[in-house]
Design goal:
This protein is an alpha/beta fold. The chain contains eight helices and nine strands.
Amino acid sequence: MTREIIAILRGLKPSEAIEITDVLIAAGITKIEVPLNSPDPFDSIAAMIKHAGDRAVIGAGTVLEVAQVDKLAVIGAQMVVSPDAFPDVIRATKAAGMLSYPGVLTPSEAFSALRNGADGLKFFPGFKLGTEGLKALKAVLPAGTKTYAVGGAGPDNFGDWIAAGATGFGIGSNIYKPGYSASQVADLAAEIVAAYDEAKA
């Protein structure tokens, strides 16, 4: 079962990248991003791809520039996640054969992202849009548009977001913060997967 959960590992260090990747995959989370404002993010991402690129979709978050997309393509990243919907970044991501998940909040941003080739929309910050806002947007978005709630979505409200039309979630501080041990991340990931599976049932 492929769960629509993207683990956001902001602050991850290369020295812990492999261990954290393993516990996430073991828990059933197979979409993992390392934001580029983490320490040496390209080193972490490259190591994770080499270790588990055949078992998980691994890529970067907080991608803001085409040069970053190009660098990710060289190391074999599989997805690009951004806080904004910069058309140049989306088009470069798709040209390089990677999945594109830009950040949007308004109808204008959402449709612009889709027109430029986005694979899914990251609604960020999700708590500003809310479930009612997502429900309203889903009414006008093309059928089948993948929508991810990020910021304000977690195990306690997965069901509400799914009922509003969310495809999945990006989970950051609920699953990883700098200093968390692999066992802590494993426990949090297990809770998140259980809540997600229950909400989807």
